[in-house]
Amino acid sequence: MRPTDFSKNLADFLTHYLPGERGASKNTIASYKDAFILFLTFLKERENIPAERLTLSQITKEIVVKFLDWLEEERHCCAATRNVRLAALHSFFQYLQYQNPENLMEWQRILSIPVKRTEKPTIKYLSVEGIRLILEGPNQSTKSGRRDLALLSLMYDSGARVQEIIDLTPSMVRLDPPCTVKLIGKGNKARIVPLLEQQVKFLKIYMTEQKLLHPHANMYPLFSNSRKEKLTRAGVNYILAKYARQAREREPSLIPEKLSCHCLRHSLAMHLLQSGVNLVYIRDILGHTSVQVTEIYARTDSRQKREAIEKAYTDATPKEIPSWLANDDLLEWLKSFTR
Known about the structure:
The protein is mainly alpha-helical. The chain folds into two domains: 107 residues, Orthogonal Bundle (DNA polymerase, domain 1); 179 residues, hpI Integrase, Chain A (Orthogonal Bundle), CATH 1.10.443.10. Helix content is 58%, strand content 4%. The protein is built from 16 helices and three strands. The chain has a three-stranded antiparallel sheet, with no helix packed on it. The N and C termini lie far apart (102 Å). The mean pLDDT is 86.
C-alpha cells in the first residue's frame, strides 16, 4: 500500500521538522506523538477512517472540533489536556501551511480553533518546616536512603523539574567550588544553578558510593534504581510520596494530602522570594522564559502582601469608641438620638 500524503507529512513533521528546524525536546515530540495517536484512534472509532487510508483532504475544522469534544466527553480529559492536544495539532497545521499550501484555507480554519479558558490553579508549596520534615525522612544508614536524600534535597535546592532531575548525568554536576548543576529544561535550554554546601555533601557521599565520580561514569544516569536503570517520573513521584506520607504522620498540618514533585520547585521559589531574593534571579534559577512567568509567586505570597500593607498603613480609625458601639441597647440609643 502506498503511503498517503497525511502519513508522509506527519512523519516528516515528527522526525525532521520538530527536532531539526524547531529544536523541540524529546518530551515535546513524545507529547505531540501521543496527540496524533489519539487523533488517529478517534478517526478510526468515530469516523470510520483507518490510519492507512487517511488523507489530508479528509481533515477539516469540523473533524478537529469533534476530536476535541471526544477527548472531553468520552475520555474525560480536562480542558488543560484538551489544550495540550490542540497545541500539537496547531503546530502540525502551521507546518502544513508551507508544505501543502493548496489547502491553506482549511489549515487556517483549524488554526482558528481557540484554546479553552481554564482556571489557573493556586500554587501549592510547603513551608520551610515542611521541607525539613520531608528531608529528615530518608534513612541515611541505607544505600537507598542516601540516594533518596541526595535526590530530594537536590530537587528542592535547584528548583528542578522532575524530567530535569531524571535526565541528569554525573558530568552535569560540578562538585568543586563554585559548585553547580547544569539542568536541561524545556526546549533543550540549559541553565546553571549554584549548589549549597550541605547539598554538595549529600551528593558527594552518594556519588562516591555509587562510583559515579570516575570518568567512565560521566554519562550514566545520576539517579538510578536498584537495577542501575534511569529513574522514571513515576519512580521519583513514588520516592517523594513515601517520605511525604511519613512526614504527614508526624505533622499532618505541614504536609498536604496531595503533594507533587513540582511542589518542591514551587516551595524553593516561594522561600527565595520570602527571603528577599530578586525575581530576576528566581527566574534564572527556575529557567523561566520571562520574569512575568515568575511573578506568579509574588502574586501568591500573601505574607509579603500583608507585610507591605502593614509597612505602608496609616491608621485612620477613630480613637474613641462611637456611642452606638458602647450602647448595648441600640434601640434606646436610636430613640435618644432624636431628642
